[in-house]
Amino acid sequence: MAAGRNIGVAVDFSPCSKNALRWAAANLASSGDRLILIHVKASYQYEQGVAHLWERDGSPLIPMLELSDPRVSKIYGLAVDRETLEILTRAAGQRCVQVFAKVLWGDPARKLTEAVHKLPLHWLVVGNRGLGTVKRYLFSSFMLIDLADRLIDDHCTDLELMVVGVRVLMGSVSTYVVNHAACPVTVVRENMLPSAQPASY
């Protein structure tokens, strides 16, 4: 039997990332796969010397059984909440997947992209909060004015316009990851149901 896949899910324990985790567990994870939560933290302010061991390459893979241990949480600065643990327990039991977590330190977009190579990942799932209706309308209006100016000046191609349009709909982290990751990336909207089909790139 072939080895299972490594499916990465970017998590910050927000409702958006939990929805991405639910979607990955329901739609991608299969028996024998490894579901790897990837949590990126900006700073290295942990127990003296501990985080510096993993500053460049991140923590070792942390098995699911250790995720609820307060000592492990303190070492890695990882606070996994009850809802996330329930999602993981369900995925492990119903989908027969192994669950791990990995903590990385640095810029989220770059670290997620690097994780694709270093783990390596066969698929990466990221959440996307999206803009609120009013913010989306205002931002899109300004973008459309800018795009119209660019078209008039004839300085950009249809492809460039499409890329700018995608950036309007996705956040900066998901846009970077979609454009730089060397594996398929699925972007899951915060309000998307686990059975819905999100955009995959």
UniProtKB/TrEMBL annotation:
Write down the InterPro entries for this protein, in alphabetical order: Rossmann-like_a/b/a_fold, Universal_stress_UspA, UspA
* CDD domains, alphabetized: USP_At3g01520-like
Cited Pfam families = Usp
Sequence ranges assigned to domain UspA in this UniProt record: 5-141, 167-189
Tell me the superkingdom of the source.
Eukaryota
Q: Which Gene3D superfamilies match?
A: HUPs
Q: What is this protein called?
A: UspA domain-containing protein
